[in-house]
Amino acid sequence: GAVVSQHPSWVICKSGTSVKIECRSLDFQATTMFWYRQFPKQSLMLMATSNEGSKATYEQGVEKDKFLINHASLTLSTLTVTSAHPEDSSFYICGSSTDTQYFGPGTRLTVL
Amino acid sequence: AQSVTQPDIHITVSEGASLELRCNYSYGATPYLFWYVQSPGQGLQLLLKYFSGDTLVQGIKGFEAEFKRSQSSFNLRKPSVHWSDAAEYFCAVGARGNEKLTFGTGTRLTIIP
Fold first, then answer.
1. pLDDT tens across B46-98, in order?
2. Which of A71, B59, B77, B104 could disulfide-link B6, Cβ–Cβ 3.0 to 4.6 Å?
3. Chain A residues within an 8 Å CB radius of B104
């Protein structure tokens, strides 16, 4: 139980394009979903928290117009990186939570 | 503000030896504590969690952790490590299980034959 999927697992895009990452809780309904960014050999940095049907709450320093989060249902949240640039290249991980946070396998984004 | 300290950046252990990974937290109320493991290029897998009750909690893969309120610690232990345990280990603390977590910087575990 408590399986979280992310799609795609790996994406390469050109600078200036937008990329959408999906996060799904497959066998449970998540009251809250979280989006993290992880740089090589570093810990997870929380970007935003989202609840179904509500606007996401962004952490300080995270551009909400650049990282668009939609939480359409209790099992699906999406992160769209708009007008991506090379500095947005990173490993993005979602967390889905009921009383415990479970994580997706991550999406590696490379912006050329 | 809540914080988590994992004092050991990298630990090397021989296969079959015992393991203890340290975690100290700072939190104003009763903490919810977690240990996660991450293999390279993968997401995080929950090893175990502490919400309340028995301070010694058992997790998956033979891991256990002990909550010591007086020391603000939640150390992870395993009596005999396997080569497959080589990974990055993260300790985390939160207000409730479904609220945002604060992670430590992680401890990288290397297993030698």
1. 999 999 889 999 999 999 999 999 999 999 999 999 999 999 999 999 877 67
2. B104
3. 43
CA distance A18 to A76: 19
- What stretch of H or E contains A9? none
Q: Distance between CA B13 and CA B7 in Å, rounded?
A: 16
Q: How many CA atoms lie within 13 A of B108 on its CB side?
A: 8
Distance CA A60, CA A44 (A): 15
Minimum-distance CB partner of A99 among B44, B90, B98: B98
Contacts of B42 in chain A (CB under 8 A): 105-106
**For chain B, what's the residue count?**
113
Residue A106: closest CA among A1, A13, A11: A11
The string of pLDDT tens digits covering residues A21-52 is: 999 999 988 888 999 999 888 889 999 999 88
Mean pLDDT, residues B85-113:
91
Contacts 24+ apart (CB under 8 A), A46-55: A46/B100, A46/B101, A47/A79, A49/B100, A50/A77
Name the minimum distance, in Å, from the CA of A18 to any CA of chain B.
23
The CA angle A20-A23-A74, to the nearest 5 degrees, is 120
Q: In the block, which residue shows the tokens 């937290």? A: B25
- CB-CB neighbours of B78 under 10 Å: 21
